[in-house]
Amino acid sequence: MRIAQVAPLTEAVPPKLYGGTERVISWLTEELVEQGHDVTLFASGDSETTARLAPMWPRALRLDGTVRDPMALHMLMIEHVYRRAREFDIIHMHLDYFPFSIMSRQSVPFITTLHGRLDLREHQPLFDAWRDIPVVSISDSQRRPLPQARWASTIHHGLPTDLLTPQPTGQPEYLAFLGRICPEKRVDRAIHIAERCGLPLKIAAKVDPVDADYFEDEIKPLLARAPNVEFIGEIADHQKAEFLGKAMALLMPIDWPEPFGLVMIESMACGTPVIAFNRGSVPEVIEDGVTGYIVEDEIAASQAVRNLDRIDRAVVRRRFEERFTATRMAEGYVDLYEQLIMQASPRPRLAVA
């Protein structure tokens, strides 16, 4: 198939550091190329891919301090894709609802994967207006606020089998928190859980400018009072295997309807169990008592830490290989692409004299 992948310009594909959506797009694109498809990636010019790169801006917008209106560049990219639409059999968008209006006015089938939260009030009239546009959810729980949307499929994220692997280590000695520091990720809970258990906690996370005040006012004082906690900052992909592989468990004490939670399958790839709060997609990803524990509060999370010896880390890795690889993800999308192309194909009609 001739496939267009259209990525946000915020981060490169793959991102240099943090960036879950762009990372998933990269894994999907590379797997589609590996399977023999003709793929064009619309992304920032500093992206790296074996597909045909269509650069829409020289560098990722998060790294380009000269750009003051990122939406202008995204709208321009959508127009470029619209004008080139007939070069493709299928167009796969990763820009949420931004392409809906213009792309619904052309005939090439397109699909949009919704990567973010969908429980905001303003989403209701928007998806009422575009009920016929096929969209993909990254978890079944993500769909719940918008039953009126045309859900074409749920396709869980997957990552390359050999990207993150279990590390040959001694006895794991610390708990881990990986991702982003913001109110909904609740790193404060992770600190409290580690204190309850009397264990070290290592935090590898970025702080976005929008969350800088939260970090300074709420989290920094906790770090100052917690000698068992080490704040590492943002880490890259090549550092994750060691960081996660040497941890007793990944703590994911979220306080929002997480659409997927890529960090969970990154941890599973390393054979490291996950202790996650029962929010959003968590019950779809974590198998309680098998790949980690699903908990309701800090007390239950502390008890789960004490029961980690019941989790077989080899089984955690095996369940990742069975459920959350990039190959499995790409196969799900290819099946969906074929369905949409078939639906859009003109059907022969028998003329009766």
Structural notes for this entry:
The protein is of the alpha/beta class. It has helices spanning 20-34, 70-83, 100-103, 123-129, 140-143, 187-197, 212-224, 237-245, 262-269, 282-285, 298-306, 313-323, 326-344, and strands at 2-6, 38-44, 52-57, 90-93, 110-114, 134-137, 150-154, 174-180, 201-206, 229-231, 247-252, 274-277, 292-295. Strand 6, helix 5 (140-143) and strand 7 form a beta-alpha-beta unit. Helix 1 (20-34) crosses helix 13 (326-344) and helix 6 (187-197) crosses helix 11 (298-306). The chain starts with a strand and ends in a 9-residue tail after the last helix. The model has no long low-confidence stretch (mean pLDDT 93).
List keywords for this structure.
353 residues, alpha/beta, seven-stranded parallel beta sheet, six-stranded parallel beta sheet, 13 helices, 13 strands, 36% helix
List the helices and strands and how they pair.
Blueprint: E1 2-6, H1 20-34, E2 38-44, E3 52-57, H2 70-83, E4 90-93, H3 100-103, E5 110-114, H4 123-129, E6 134-137, H5 140-143, E7 150-154, E8 174-180, H6 187-197, E9 201-206, H7 212-224, E10 229-231, H8 237-245, E11 247-252, H9 262-269, E12 274-277, H10 282-285, E13 292-295, H11 298-306, H12 313-323, H13 326-344
Parallel strand pairs: 1-2, 1-4, 2-3, 4-5, 5-6, 6-7, 8-9, 8-11, 9-10, 11-12, 12-13
